Every structure is written in C-alpha cells, then in structure tokens.
C-alpha cells in the first residue's frame, strides 16, 4: 500500500492541526492548499468572502497544493466547515486532480455544524472515487478521537 496523502485547507490553523495529526499517525505526506488571494484576516470579512465564493461555486487559483496525486491511492481531504460546505480551495483541488480509482477520506473542523454537506459535496465532485467515512471535530478535538477513527478505518480493512 502506498503512503496516504493528506490535503487540507486551513483558515485559522485548526484544520492544519488535525491534518498534521493524521499525517503523523498514518505516516502520510501532507499538502496544504494555499489560495493565491488569502481570505480577510477579520472574521466578518472572511465569512463574507467565503459565502460569496461558495454560492458562486468559485474555484480560487491555488499557489500550492494541487500538484499531481498519481502516486497516492488514499487521499485525506480536510477543510473547515464553511456554511455547511467545504472551503473554496478544496473545490479548486477537487477540480484540478483526477481522483478516479482513488480512495477519498474527508475530515473537517467545525464550530458545531458537523459535516454539514461536506461529504455529499465531495462525493458529487469525485463520483469515480471511493469515499470512506470521515471525521468531523470541533476545535478542541483530542488526538485520541483521530486515533480511534483511523483505527476504525483500519479495522474495516478500508485503509
């Protein structure tokens, strides 16, 4: 089995922290999606920008993160829950790579909204990939939650 790839977008660092835990536990490679134009540093500004982009289905240009994924069979995709969906840089990634035949494993951080529509939206963007059960955690998650989830995937012989 090849190493997994952990791809993520993080606005405040919470999703980055979760991605790093997953990478350490799985010995996976990690890749941060960095949009060409960063979101506003103010919460209100960032939410206004994000809502507009999500509603328009906008794919921001990425400075990094959308390099080829040919060498990976398992792709973890992480995002904050923004308005019940993934952050727009995730959409840019999903539309720039070929996930056919790959196994996709979503994860998200949230302030109380769980996955929202993230798993559904990811499944719609990569219909030819296998989607495994994801993990949705709040900002105060503990590493044990991540370990238990990955162990469950492993026990199911899905990872």
UniProtKB/TrEMBL annotation:
Task: Provide a Gene Ontology MF annotation, just one.
Answer: FMN binding
Q: Which Gene3D superfamilies match?
A: 3.40.50.360
Where in this chain does the record put each Flavodoxin-like domain?
3-150
Q: What InterPro entries does its record include?
A: Flavodoxin/NO_synth, Flavoprotein-like_sf
Source organism superkingdom: Bacteria
Signal peptide coordinates = none
Name of the protein in question: Flavodoxin-like domain-containing protein
Organism, by scientific name, is: Desulfitobacterium hafniense (strain Y51)
């Amino acid at each position: 089995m090849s190493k997994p790839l952990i791809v993520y977008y993080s606005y405040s660092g919470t999703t980055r922290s979760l991605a790093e835990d997953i990478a350490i536990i799985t010995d996976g490679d990690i890749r941060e999606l960095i949009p060409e134009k960063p979101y506003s540093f103010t919460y209100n500004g960032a939410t206004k920008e994000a809502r507009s982009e999500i509603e328009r289905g906008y794919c921001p240009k990425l400075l990094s993160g959308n390099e080829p994924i040919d060498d990976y069979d398992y792709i973890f995709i992480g995002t904050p829950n923004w308005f019940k969906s993934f952050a727009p840089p995730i959409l840019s990634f999903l539309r720039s790579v070929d996930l056919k035949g790959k196994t996709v494993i979503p994860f998200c951080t949230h302030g109380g909204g769980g996955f929202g529509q993230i798993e559904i939206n990811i499944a719609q963007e990569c219909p030819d990939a296998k989607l495994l059960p994801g993990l949705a955690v709040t900002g105060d998650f503990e590493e044990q939650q991540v370990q238990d989830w990955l162990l469950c995937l492993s026990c199911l012989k899905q990872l």
